């Protein structure tokens, strides 16, 4: 399977699993969403906001280099990421729409992504001020790895709160597999 097909499949998985988890979280009380988790992030809302930060900062780096149809204009209606601790929304009901917009943008990006794009390099400055150069394929993979890492932490917290969030297996969530057209 090509990287591009893999990224398109992962974009669909990303959207579908975020929708699934969001549906579960929207059923929780605000008290539970803000309850101290004694985990990597202090509460469920902080997990959602941090996952979004990762997406926004990576998409912005790609957009500044006009990769796969992303441009700064494409992101103009979205918040500008500044710090891994950014809080974009305090209420999950407000956050859900923003999360969905970004997931659709990731699908659009992966739909436009080419093998040639994947081999390109871009340079950027990290939030810590370090200048680095990375290949597009690595940055794109990190979008999905970052989300999976923190969704894993989030599902651990949800389990501890007694939430049954359902199956998260890739072959079930994206049953069409890499044949999927994002």
What does this entry look like structurally?
It contains 7 helices and 2 strands. A hairpin with a 5-residue loop joins β1 (121-125) and β2 (131-135). It starts with a helix and ends in a 9-residue tail after the last helix. The protein has a two-stranded antiparallel ribbon with strand order 1-2. The mean pLDDT is 93. With 182 residues, the protein is mainly α. The protein has helices spanning 3-26, 30-33, 44-63, 92-112, 115-119, 136-160, 170-173, and strands at 121-125, 131-135. Helices cover 57% and strands 5% of the residues.
Features:
182 residues, mainly alpha, 5% strand
Quick structural gist:
With 182 residues, the protein is mainly alpha-helical.
SSE inventory with pairings:
Blueprint: H1 3-26, H2 30-33, H3 44-63, H4 92-112, H5 115-119, E1 121-125, E2 131-135, H6 136-160, H7 170-173
